[in-house]
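Continuing the series of single-chain predictions for the mutant panel. This is the parent chain; the variants come on the following pages.
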Amino acid sequence: MIRLREEEEGGLLTIVPPGLTLQKGLDEAAIRVSPKEDTEMIARKIVSAYLAGYNSIHIKTDKQQLSAKQRHDMKIFVRSMLVGTEIVTDTSSQLTLQVLLTYPELTVQSALRRMSIITVSMHKDAILALKTRDNVLAREVISTDNEVDRFNLYVTRLLKTAIQNPRLTKEIGLADGEDCLGYRLVTKSVERTADHAVNIAENVLTLKRDLNNDIVEKIEQMSSIATKMFDTAVESLFRQDYNSAESIMKSIKEIVSLERDAVVSSKMDIEDAANLRLIIESVRRTAEYACDIAEIVLNLTVDSILV
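Parent structure:
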């Protein structure tokens, strides 16, 4: 007896024998490394296999053993950067990574929402560090970027898996396969926004003198508008709200005006002025990424305004 399972998307039909569970994702991948390879080279190979959707990744050497440093660095990388991944084998010649998280446990929307919350928090903390000249807080912003990066990798993995296997689209939390590209672009914009929060924090650390209240106030005004735009853009994606996304576009003119005033007010020590202008630019870029996200939402929800 053969069971015929009909999938909704694209008229896809899947024939499944009784007792057979449909395979989700790929099975195993083996990565060959040499003791001479540094951590970054090995990490890139691991990320490539992770993003490709492999659930079990074996890191091996042909003859020689993995160095203690390689094993230590790889374990730290996996635990800090790959969501849902555990080290199940740890020997001198092999590390085996197993992706244990299933799709319904952390959907695309859930992971993207966490990314967005962390990103806004990073931006606000970076501006607070600028205002209070709190270098400890600035360094905390920089270290938090890893959290955004790990969710970025996870979402990218889910989206690539759904493109390869349309059956999984609904399991990762999307309505249909057409959403995958849009969500990938949004995820990238969120990750880039977090990078600009890091840029702000790094430039705070390089400032030599306190800023006058006028310039700090202008930057805070820019930041408040930019983060509100970002929050609204992401929320409009989750709500599939065309009108909310459209409203964001009007705010960018205010950002540009405030940026112009802030740059004019940034007359100070030459080195500090350069760092300050980079901070102002990163705040503006946050607003621009919000507009990018809003444009993607407009494209994804255009059917809602058609007659």
